[in-house]
Q: What sequence folds into this?
C-alpha cells in the first residue's frame, strides 16, 4: 500500500509553488533559481512530461482534484503495475483463437507485457494543485468548438485518406508507425505526453538558442532567441519554425509554419490551417520542475484561443537513442500482413 | 676556448625567446577565437565539412559511379545507378585518412570490396539510416553545436541525427546504438570526445568502408580560428583493422546571416524504395493507379 | 489456479487516463493475426535491443525434431534501460516461454510477446513505478539475488 504520507509531503512542499511565488518558495526552502552565465533561468537537463492526467477533462469534473481522489487513482495505477509483475502459469497454453478480448491498442492480441510501458504513474501537479486535465482554458478543460472551415478541412482530409484502405500504402499508416514522428504530440509544439512511454526531453541552452530534443524520434527543435526572421512560406518543417524571447524569467516561444502532414494527422492539430500559431511559456518553478504553458491560436479553426499547463519534471535517468526507422520491422509486418490477408481472402 | 664575443642570444636562445613571446602574445587568429564564460573555446554555431570525404575517405580517382559493373572495355555504372549519369559520378578526393590507406585486416578489406560491388543494397545512407560516427561529421549537410557550461550537443541536419556528448561518463552503454555513446572532456583548448557502444551497421563513407561493434572513436575538435575547427577522429577496432588510424579535416562555419540548420527527415523519402513492393497496388504494376 | 498473465488493456484503466488516440501507436491488431495463436518455449538465440520494438529470437524444436527460430516482439528498450537493464540481463541460451499471436503474414515466424516469462512463469523483466516503493525494492532485491533483472 502506497504511503499517503509521501503524497501529503508533496502537497505541502508544492503549496506555494508558482511563477509569482517562486521567490517566496525559494526563501522558504532555500532554493535559488539556477541561472546561466548570461543571467537567464537555466532550463537545461533531462525532463519528462509523463503523467496520468489526460489532455482533455472528463465532463463534470473540476480542474483541481482532491487529494483522496488522487490517491485512489495513483493506487489504481500502482495496483496494475504490481499485478503485471506477478508470475504467470508456466503451463499456460497459447491464447484463444479469435483473440484474447483485449481492446484499444492491444488489438485483441494482447499487445505485450506491462513491464514495457512507462505511462506515468502520477497525477499532474501544477503550482501545488492536482490537475484533472492539461487543458485549463476553456474553463471546462475541453477542446473548444471548431469553426465550419475547420470542420470542412477535417472532412476533406478524411475523404483523401479514405480513397485508400488503411493498409494500402505506407503513407496510409500513422506517422508514428512510419517512424516519422512520435505518437501523440511529443514533439509538438505543444509538447504533450503520449501516455505510453519515453516522454522525455533534453534541453540545452545558450544565449541565442534553446535546443529541445524529444526522445522519440530523436527530433530536435531549435528555438532561436531574438527578433524573428521567419522561414519563407514554402518551407514548412515538422515542428514548425520557432522564435523565442525572454519576458522576465519566462521563456516565450512562438511557432508557425507547421508541416501540412503534421497538421493533418496529429490529433491536437485537427482542422488547423496554415495560420496556426502556438505559443509556449517555460518557467523554472523549482529544482525539479519547469512549468510549461501552451496556447493554441488559429482564428480559422477555433473562435477563441485555448491553453494548457503541463508540469515538466526532472528525469532521473538518461534519454536514450530511439533509432526508430532503422529497426522498424513493424511497418513491414503490417504491410506484408495486409497483403497476406488479402491473398487469403481472395482464396489464393 | 673561443675568443669570439658571445652573441647576445644563441640560436637556440633566440628560438626559446620566440616561443615565450608567442605564448604571451596570441597570434591574430587565436586572439579572436570566441570563448565562453568558462574560458573554453566556444564551438557554438553551424558547421560543415567541405571536400569529398563523404564519397570516399581514402585518396581516390574520380570514377563513373559508386557501383560499377563490367563493361566491354572499362567498368561502367551498374544498372541501379545508371539513370543518375554524372550526378551519380564520384569526384576525385585527396583523402582524409592520415597516411592514405585504411589498415584493414584481410577479411575486412575483402568485405569493403564486396560493399562497393553491392553498394545500392548495402549503403545505409540510401535507406536514410543514421550515419554513425565519424561519418555524421562530414556528410554533405551542416550540423549545429550547442555548447553550454554543462552540455555539448550536436544536431546534424541529415536524418535529424543527434549526439548528446556527456560531460560525465555514465558507464558502459548496455545496448548498441547507431550514433554511439559519447563522453567529452577538455584538454587545453581541444575538446576530446570518446565514443563507443556502436552497432556494426554504419559505414565511414559511400565507398563501403566499415567497422565492427567494437569500434571506439576518439575525436578532437580544435578551433583554429573563429570560423574553423580542425577535426580529427581516431578509429580503434581490432576486429576490423590492424592498428588504430586517424582522419583529419577542417570544419567550416556557416556565416550567411540567415544560416540555420535545415530539416532533412528523409525517412518518408525512402518509403517507395523500401515498401513500394508491399503496396496494395505497386506503382507501375499495371493496376491503373 | 491458472493465472491470466497481465497484458496491456488500455480501455480498462481508470476514467482519468486518456483514451488511446486512434492514430497514436501502431495497433497490434494490424500486425498480428488473432486467429493464429502460438505458444513457444525454447532458448533465446539472439536479442535485438532496437526501437521501436525489441525483438527476442527464440529457437523452438518442432514435433519432427527440426528447429525453427521465431522472432518475438517486445517494447522499447529505453524504458528498461532507465530501470537498470544490462547487457547480461537476458543471456543467450536462457529458456523462455512466449504466448501470443503470429504475424498476419504467416510466411514469417514472428509473433507478439503477449506474455514472455522464464520457465518458472516469472516475467523476464519487471515494470516499475519509478517511485522506489518498498514493495518494489524488495522484489528487485529478490530478483538480483537470482541473477535476474
A:
Amino acid at each position: 500500500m502506497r504511503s499517503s504520507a509521501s503524497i501529503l509531503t508533496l502537497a505541502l512542499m508544492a503549496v506555494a509553488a508558482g511563477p509569482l511565488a517562486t521567490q517566496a518558495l525559494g526563501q522558504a526552502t532555500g532554493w535559488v533559481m539556477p541561472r546561466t552565465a548570461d543571467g537567464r533561468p537555466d532550463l537545461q537537463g533531462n525532463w519528462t512530461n509523463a503523467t496520468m492526467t489526460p489532455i482533455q477533462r472528463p465532463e463534470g469534473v473540476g480542474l483541481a482534484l482532491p487529494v483522496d481522489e488522487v490517491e485512489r487513482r495513483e493506487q489504481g495505477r500502482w495496483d496494475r503495475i504490481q499485478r503485471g509483475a506477478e508470475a504467470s502459469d508456466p503451463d499456460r497454453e497459447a491464447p484463444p483463437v479469435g483473440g484474447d478480448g483485449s481492446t484499444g491498442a492491444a488489438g485483441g492480441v494482447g499487445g505485450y507485457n506491462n513491464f514495457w510501458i512507462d505511462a506515468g504513474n502520477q497525477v499532474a501537479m501544477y503550482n501545488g494543485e492536482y490537475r484533472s486535465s492539461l487543458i485549463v482554458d476553456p474553463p471546462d478543460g475541453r477542446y473548444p468548438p471548431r469553426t465550419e472551415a475547420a470542420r470542412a478541412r477535417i472532412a476533406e482530409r478524411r475523404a483523401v485518406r479514405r480513397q485508400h484502405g488503411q493498409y494500402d500504402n505506407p503513407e496510409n499508416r500513422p506517422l508514428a508507425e512510419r517512424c516519422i514522428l512520435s505518437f501523440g504530440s511529443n514533439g509538438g509544439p505543444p509538447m504533450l505526453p503520449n501516455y505510453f512511454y519515453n516522454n522525455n526531453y533534453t534541453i540545452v541552452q545558450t544565449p541565442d538558442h534553446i535546443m529541445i530534443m524529444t526522445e522519440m524520434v530523436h527530433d530536435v527543435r531549435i528555438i532561436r532567441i531574438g527578433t524573428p526572421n521567419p522561414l519563407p512560406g514554402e518551407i514548412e518543417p515538422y515542428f514548425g519554425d520557432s522564435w523565442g524571447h525572454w519576458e522576465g524569467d519566462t521563456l516565450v516561444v512562438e511557432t508557425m509554419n507547421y508541416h501540412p502532414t503534421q497538421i493533418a494527422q496529429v490529433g491536437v492539430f485537427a482542422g488547423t490551417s496554415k495560420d496556426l500559431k502556438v505559443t509556449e511559456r517555460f518557467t523554472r518553478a523549482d529544482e525539479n520542475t519547469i512549468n510549461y504553458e501552451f496556447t493554441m491560436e488559429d482564428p480559422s479553426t477555433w473562435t477563441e484561443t485555448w491553453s494548457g499547463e503541463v508540469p515538466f519534471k526532472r528525469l532521473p535517468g538518461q534519454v536514450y537513442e530511439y533509432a526508430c526507422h532503422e529497426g522498424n520491422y513493424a511497418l513491414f509486418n503490417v504491410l506484408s500482413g495486409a497483403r497476406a490477408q488479402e491473398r487469403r481472402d481472395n482464396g489464393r | 676556448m673561443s675568443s669570439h664575443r658571445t652573441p647576445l642570444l644563441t640560436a637556440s636562445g633566440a628560438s626559446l625567446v620566440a616561443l615565450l613571446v608567442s605564448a604571451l602574445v596570441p597570434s591574430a587568429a587565436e586572439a579572436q577565437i570566441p570563448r565562453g564564460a568558462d574560458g573554453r573555446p566556444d564551438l557554438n554555431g553551424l558547421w560543415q565539412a567541405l571536400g569529398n570525404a563523404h564519397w570516399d575517405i581514402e585518396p581516390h580517382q574520380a570514377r563513373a559511379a559508386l557501383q560499377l559493373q563490367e563493361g566491354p572495355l572499362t567498368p561502367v555504372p551498374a544498372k541501379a545507378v545508371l539513370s543518375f549519369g554524372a550526378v551519380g559520378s564520384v569526384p576525385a578526393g585527396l583523402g582524409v585518412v592520415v597516411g592514405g590507406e585504411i589498415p584493414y585486416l584481410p577479411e575486412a578489406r575483402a568485405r569493403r570490396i564486396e560493399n562497393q560491388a553491392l553498394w545500392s543494397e548495402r549503403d545505409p545512407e540510401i535507406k536514410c539510416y543514421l550515419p554513425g560516427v565519424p561519418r555524421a561529421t562530414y556528410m554533405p549537410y551542416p550540423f549545429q553545436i550547442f555548447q553550454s557550461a554543462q552540455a555539448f550537443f550536436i544536431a546534424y541536419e541529415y536524418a535529424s541525427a543527434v549526439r548528446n556528448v556527456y560531460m560525465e561518463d555514465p558507464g558502459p552503454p548496455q545496448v548498441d546504438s547507431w550514433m554511439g555513446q559519447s563522453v567529452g572532456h577538455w584538454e587545453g583548448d581541444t575538446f576530446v570526445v570518446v565514443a563507443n557502444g556502436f552497432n556494426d551497421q554504419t559505414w565511414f563513407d559511400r565507398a563501403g568502408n566499415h567497422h565492427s561493434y567494437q569500434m571506439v572513436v576518439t575525436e578532437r575538435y580544435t578551433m583554429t580560428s573563429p570560423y574553423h575547427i580542425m577535426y580529427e577522429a581516431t578509429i580503434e577496432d581490432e576486429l576490423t583493422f590492424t592498428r588504430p588510424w586517424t582522419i583529419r579535416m577542417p570544419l567550416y562555419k556557416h556565416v550567411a546571416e540567415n544560416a540555420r540548420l535545415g530539416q532533412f527527415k528523409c525517412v518518408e523519402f525512402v518509403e517507395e524504395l523500401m515498401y513500394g513492393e508491399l503496396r496494395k497496388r505497386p506503382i507501375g504494376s499495371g493496376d491503373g493507379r | 489456479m491458472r493465472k491470466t498473465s497481465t497484458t496491456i488493456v488500455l480501455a480498462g484503466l481508470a476514467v482519468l487516463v486518456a483514451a488511446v488516440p486512434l492514430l497514436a501507436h501502431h495497433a497490434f491488431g494490424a500486425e498480428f493475426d488473432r486467429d493464429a495463436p502460438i505458444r513457444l518455449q525454447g532458448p533465446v538465440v539472439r536479442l535485438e535491443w532496437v526501437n521501436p520494438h525489441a525483438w527476442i529470437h527464440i529457437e523452438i524444436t518442432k514435433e519432427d525434431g527440426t528447429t525453427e527460430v521465431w522472432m518475438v516482439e517486445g517494447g522499447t528498450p529505453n524504458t528498461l534501460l532507465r530501470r537498470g537493464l544490462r547487457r547480461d540481463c537476458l543471456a543467450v541460451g536462457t529458456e523462455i516461454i512466449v504466448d501470443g499471436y503470429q504475424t498476419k503474414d504467416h510466411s514469417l515466424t514472428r509473433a507478439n510477446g503477449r506474455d514472455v516469462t522464464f520457465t518458472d512463469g516469472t516475467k523476464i523483466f519487471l515494470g516499475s513505478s519509478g517511485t522506489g516503493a518498498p514493495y518494489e525494492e524488495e522484489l528487485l532485491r529478490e530478483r538480483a539475488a537470482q541473477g535476474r533483472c
Observations:
- Helices of chain A lie at 4-14, 22-29, 67-85, 148-161, 260-265, 329-345.
- The CA atoms of residues 35 and 41 of chain A lie 4 Å apart.
- The domain at 34-56+132-326 of chain A is CATH 2.40.128.20 (Lipocalin).
